[in-house]
Amino acid sequence: MAPSVRAAEPSCCRFCNTPLERVFIDLGLSPLANSYLRDEKAKRDERFFPLRAYVCGECFLVQLEEWEPPENIFGDYAYFSSYSESWLQHAKSYVARAMERFGIGPQSKVVEIASNDGYLLQYFVEKDVPVLGIEPAQNVAAVARARGIPTRVEFFGERTARTLRREGLRANLLIGNNVLAHVPNLNDFVKGMSILLEDRGVITMEFPHLMRLFDECQIDTIYHEHFSYFSFISVEKIFAAHGLTLFDVEELPTHGGSLRIYAQHSKGWHPISHRVDDLRTREINAGYADLDHYDAFEERAMQTKRKLLAFLEEAKRQGKRVVGYGAPAKGNTLLNYCGITTDHIEYTVDRSPHKQGCLLPGTHIPIFEPERINVTKPDYILILPWNLKREIVSQLSFARSWGAQFVVPIPEPRLVD
Questions:
Q1: Per its UniProt record, what Pfam families does this chain match (predicted)?
Q2: Which residue, of 44, 73, 105, 282, is most buried by count of CB atoms within 10 Å of its CB?
Q3: Considering the domain 308-416, what is its CATH architecture?
Q4: CA angle 24, 388, 330 (to 5 degrees)
């Protein structure tokens, strides 16, 4: 195990530059969550980094230290959005609602930041809406382009936004799903969105909600490519600092509980929804503007670890076979934090051919195609992307024929009906 050679000194808040002194949780050393191992050399060269989250005492942004630059994490990416049917349906529903609510049509310009493989923009293209995807991973962007979705391969920020404006592009609708957490330079990113947004345009962003992460002990949401973890309180401050007003917010079930925020220029024309004040007040009342509130999380995380290990050890003692379903980044955080290896989980499976035949980082659990489950007939199937448990249980319903049981690990191991 070879940790990074960079000094592990606490840095300053990536938004307000306040020194970071309060640790939210320390998950020990962990490899990059999407650094799947493809050969023996990769195992020998595997690197581990501290996975430690701080909370800012000024703006209450929860954040990680930056151990690896985004280019090393996202340059060649293993996650393809289109392999989740429920996520595709989520995207399709969003497109229909956005078009109706904001009058998006063939005369509009829609831009998605971190557009991945075109999972969302394809539904705008079907409606003859001009689109542009901005995606930093060359391998993922190539899939989108093959679908006929115009895609630029670059990281988004102020420089990209100014280049696009010089080319005559301004976005009527600017979208970012599960990208805000992945941005180390938040101020550059949000300023870029403000520059690219048309005067009456709308920004929608989705990201995991810190309140849900905290309340349900979703420790596996924390990994190195997620640089920041947002409450509504913190994200509202960040957008306001760049002349953007949040006029609406929705609480979504995706990724274990997410927010979808709606932003406009400060002189925008959309009225402020009551949901903005309601959520802000709920967070304040729950303690998210009080630094001491954050101290309780680490002990709860230890309880999650103890209970999962106890479940797996008991299954092993009884001679039960346990396998995993999925090879998500979040699962790699959980497995490494808990010290789980092939002694506990024989293998995992994943629908993505880009992951099959690899080993999970750190734990070295092998990844196979889903059909393997029907061959080995395990007693327990541990669902690592537990936020998709209903979709997965439906896909694997055949496993009930030999009495297999489905288990989710967060916030503690429990059977899924």
A1: Methyltransf_13, Methyltransf_14, Methyltransf_23
A2: 73
A3: 3-Layer(aba) Sandwich (3.40)
A4: 35
Residue with tokens 């509980």: 257
Amino acid symbol at 5: V
Cβ–Cβ < 8 Å for 322, 379 = yes
At residue 2, does pLDDT exceed 50?
no
- What average pLDDT does this structure show over 303-308? 97
Determine phi and psi for 399, rounding to 5 degrees.
-70, -20
Domain 81-289 homologous superfamily, CATH: Vaccinia Virus protein VP39 (3.40.50.150)
The answer to whether residues 390 and 413 touch, using CB atoms and an 8 Å cutoff, is no
- pLDDT, tens digit, 9 for 90 and up, residues 344-371: 999 999 998 889 999 999 999 999 999 9
Residues comprising the chain, all counted: 417
DSSP assignment letter at 184: S
Confidence check: pLDDT of 148 > 90: yes
CA nearest to 174, candidates 163, 187, 189, 186? 189
Residue with tokens 């101290």: 295
For 164, the token pair is 């696009």
pLDDT digits (tens, 9 = 90+) for 194-234: 999 999 999 999 999 999 999 999 999 999 989 999 999 99
Q: Which residues pair with 176 in a beta bridge?
A: 113, 205
pTM above 0.85, yes or no: yes
At 56, the amino acid letter reads: C
**Taking the domains of the chain in order of start, what are their residue ranges?**
2-60, 81-289, 308-416
Structure tokens at 169: 């592009």
Whether 79 contacts 35, CB under 8 Å? no
